[in-house]
Design goal:
alpha/beta, globular, about 270 residues
Amino acid sequence: MGEVITFTSGKGGVGKTTTTANVGVGLSLLDKKVVLVDTDIGLRNLDVVMGLENRILYNLVDVLTGRCRVKQALIRDKRYPNLWIIPSSCSKDAGNVLEEKQMKQLLDDLREEFDYVLIDCPAGIDEGFRLATFDADSVIVVTTPQIAAIHDADCVIQLLKRQKVPKISLLVNCFRRQMVKDGNMLDIPDICELLELEPLGVILEDEEVIISQNHGEPVMGKHTPSEVCYQNIARRLTGEEIEIPDYIRHKSIFSRIFWKNSARKLV
């Protein structure tokens, strides 16, 4: 029986889709059978990041509404024999007809076929968020070290706790060690303490991620610092004990006093 893992965030633009793609590739390289599911209906990007947009015949909405079978929507990535993708729809209105029952049936079917089902959740907390998280075995909250992103991640975490999601983990993206040393960025222990979550991994800032994304390629195989980060996250998901490197703890300009006095309104 496969595991369904949803990658979500409160704020858009934190690298959630890129993370889903690269962690998925990392798992496939560990000889795991993986499918990536894009639930961002109306604003699909996962197929673009993976460079598979020209191979789409059917999408997630077609599957959930019965217009096609699951196998017809699955796109196999020829670069990675163990990796498939189910793209989303470009039509926002299509999402209005979807129900949890349909999504649960799809995920149950995918659990039977794949070792890992990675769901790329849309940003925000609307119906797309509900559809992507309600039947997940675990949820990974992706954030960057910016205050706005952390605040929105906190709101999402509270919602997930109310939904009684079995497991919630934290992934910090675009981390700059020098900015932490200079006191201009929150460090990992502070972020974890604020959000009350244990970190699954940290992705270092890496311009190769942007370059690869613009070429429709994962960063895996580029021999960069971010590749090591993604691969370690994939290995942790399979149960390996891979230690997260210690980062220099330095007093940040964003102190806990600033955080506590800011407008922290939870939904």
